[in-house]
Amino acid sequence: MSTDAQLRDDIVEIGRRLWLRGFVASNDGNISVRIADDRVLMTPTAVSKGFMAPDMMVITDMDGTLVSGAPGRKPSSEIKMHLVAYRERPDVRAVVHAHPPLATGFAVAGIPLDRAVLAEVVTTLGSIPIAEYATPSTQELPDAVRPYVKVHDGLLLANHGALALGADLFGAYYKMETIEHFARISLVARQLGRENLLSREEVDRLQGLRGRYGISSPAPICVDETPGTTAPGGDASCQVIYAPSAPGDRLVPDTSVAQGAGASPVGTDGEIRLTYAQLTALVDDAVKQVTEGLGLKR
Ligand code: 13P
Q1: Residue-by-residue pLDDT tens, the chain, 298 positions
Q2: Which of 187, 203, 260, 296 has the most neighbouring CB atoms within 10 Å?
Q3: Interatomic CA distance for residues 217 and 188, integer angstroms
Q4: Ligand 1 in contact with 27 (CB < 6 A)?
């Protein structure tokens, strides 16, 4: 059992790592840990999480009322979002909120991280859906995340950031790292124009390995064969992961991602999909042909 002093030090260290890794800017982000049934130790509002000291932290009850803290320190403005995670999930003892740029980019684009791509992510986090947009610091935010925290340890907040839940402070922080790392890898694969997915059968196999690694899943994975089902407002009752069935195969080429350079612009549905660069080149070429045909100089 960690002491109060150790937990304060851990929050300071995690804030420093969030800031150093560029997961937060200015006063972004907040960190909390449940220290008793009715007590939460958390970061104060409006400080850079990269430069905190242990005595800056505040203690609140489970209604968010300040119990103790240095004079002038108030709890994070996102305290209600943290409290809803603790209320819905007794197994969750720590919460980290940050704005990591790649994961937040997916949240801004409305693209959930719900494809079965990396074995480690399927095993540790499952799917990472997007909670509907809510104005920060208002009751809207806990209301938006409530359905998702019941069954997910990591989620994106539409046009805002990301949230990670854990059994302890570093467990929650490492999940935030995994969310951002997964977003980075997903972006690179999509820019390269191809994304091979783990098959549904491989996802089942990975789920079976969770026990071996001592990972308890908050909910069973519901393998889905339709991409995008965890878009904001989508099914939040289970961990929906897009993984096509392919008995005998572990990897399946995904044809539904945006096509990159060198890939065929014609989707499986016959729809032509072009990148901005491809479209510009086509328009330039058309203009050139017309002007040349008319004998005009550009
Ligand atoms: P606090 O400084 O109040 O914790 O707020 C930071 C933040 O990220 C709000 O979303």
Answers
A1: 789 999 999 999 999 999 999 999 999 999 999 999 999 999 999 999 999 999 999 999 999 999 999 999 999 999 999 999 999 999 999 999 999 999 999 999 999 999 999 999 999 999 999 999 999 999 999 999 999 999 999 999 999 999 999 999 999 999 999 999 999 999 999 999 999 999 999 998 998 888 777 777 666 777 766 655 554 555 566 888 999 999 999 999 987 665 444 445 555 556 666 666 667 667 777 777 777 777 765 5
A2: 203
A3: 28
A4: yes
CATH number at residue 194: 3.40.225.10
Specify whether the CB–CB gap between 17 and 10 falls below 8 A: no
Please state, in angstroms and rounded to a whole number, the distance separating the CA atoms of residues 190 and 107: 16
Claim to verify: residue 12 and residue 45 sit in the same structural domain? yes
Residue 108 contacts residue 156 (beta carbons within 8 Å): no
Task: Indicate whether residue 180 lines ligand 1 (CB < 6 A).
Answer: no
Query: 229 CA to middle of ligand 1, Å?
Result: 29
- Cα(192) to ligand 1 centroid in Å equals 35
CB distance 29 to ligand 1 below 6 Å: yes
In this prediction the pTM is 0.84
Range of the structural domain that residue 226 is part of: 4-254
Strands (E), the chain: 30-36, 39-42, 58-60, 66-68, 94-98, 130-131, 154-157, 161-166, 195-198, 221-224, 239-242, 251-254
| Together in a domain, 175 and 137 | yes
What total of structural domains would you count in the chain? 2
CA–CA dist 81, 146 (Å, integer): 8
Q: 158 and 199: one domain?
A: yes
- CA separation for the pair 6, 170 (Å, rounded): 12
Whether 202 sits among the annotated catalytic residues: the reply is no
